Amino acid sequence: MTMIHYLPRECPKCGDIFSIPSLLSTNNMGGRTLWTDGHVTRGEPLNAFPVVACPTCRKILWTEELLNGPKPEIDYGKTYPQPLPPTTDEYFEYGSRTDINAQQELLARVLGWHSANDPRREDIDNREMQLKENAKENLRILEAILPVESLYDHMLMAEVKRELSDFSGALEVVDQSFDISDEPLPIYTQGLGLIMIMAEQKDYNVFRINKNPFASWD
Length: 218
Prior knowledge:
- The structure is a single chain.
- By secondary structure, the chain is α+β, with helices and mostly antiparallel strands.
- It has three domains: 3-68, no CATH class; 87-145; 146-211, no CATH class.
- The chain contains seven helices and six strands, in the order ββββββααααααα.
- The chain has a two-stranded antiparallel sheet.
- Helix 2 (88-95) packs antiparallel against helix 3 and helix 6 (167-176) runs antiparallel to helix 7.
- The longest helix has 21 residues, at 102-122.
- Residues 212-218 have low confidence and may be disordered.
């Protein structure tokens, strides 16, 4: 049984109130599928977005800041709309702003990357489906700002290069990942191995890492 609590919050721009869904508890979280770009699709009915858009004015807001902010006065007899996930272009536009910090830019650009890849997840058998030019430019910027420390970081960097058709660069990053001393998680090792195979085949499209949604992550 899944329990969802709705937390009313106020948009700091337009003043409208919306409800952020919060997963309280469940005894059936469902499976998780990890993709080569680091995106996770989940079995539970709720996706928690770290960045949301106000359903009225489309202002981009950080969920954590909203949840830690003041609680608005609400009408308990009224149903408030839920915030919306930003569009791919909104993620890119937010990541290009000059009034955000480096961590906000990094997350916005990664989320924009995931959003741009969603059509390729839906038609995963079409291995020739190209990203739009603005999505490729976002990847070029990500290539310059992504940290490369953990095994997960290496997987993301190798995937960025592979999706930009820099197959030799992707293979170099995979090779460098073998030098990490931390105990690797099998799912990321599997991801790096898959990226290596796809790069050798000169395939630039996103791909599922664990086709079994209940595969072990630890």
